[in-house]
Amino acid sequence: MKVTREINLRDFDAWSGAVETKERIISEGKVKEFESLVEDMFENGLTDTELNDLLWFDEEWLFESLGIDAE
Questions:
Q1: Distance of CA 19 to the CA centre of its chain
Q2: Which of 11, 13, 31, 68 has the most beta carbons within 10 angstroms of its beta carbon?
Q3: Does residue 71 lie within any of the structural domains?
Q4: pTM of the predicted model as reported, rounded to 2 decimal places
């Protein structure tokens, strides 16, 4: 996954509402699927803020796309 540089979700320092989404994706074992999804969506990479906003504001869509049950 590109965030102005090569990075993986585990190394991304999320903030605010994105922290819980990040941790849930990791705990569900969906990191590789998430990174592939983001790479497909943002072929030219994305900024830290764009990634954080995706995790924070698109939680339901991400969980659905990754096959994670929303609790």
A1: 10
A2: 68
A3: no
A4: 0.89
| 54 occurs within a structural domain | yes
**Of 44, 43, 40, 33, residue with least CA distance to 8:** 33
Please give the tally of structural domains in the chain. 1
The whole-angstrom separation of Cα 15 and Cα 11 is: 13
Residue 4: DSSP 8-state = S
CA gyration radius, the chain: 11
For 29, residues 6+ apart whose C-beta sits below 8 A from its C-beta are: none
Q: Which domain holds residue 28?
A: 9-66
> Would you say residue 13 lies in a domain?
yes
pLDDT, tens only, 17-67: 999 999 999 999 999 999 999 988 888 888 889 999 999 999 999 999 999
Question: Residue 64: what are its φ and ψ, rounded to 5°?
Answer: -60, -45
Q: Do 21 and 62 meet the contact criterion of CB atoms below 8 Å apart? A: yes
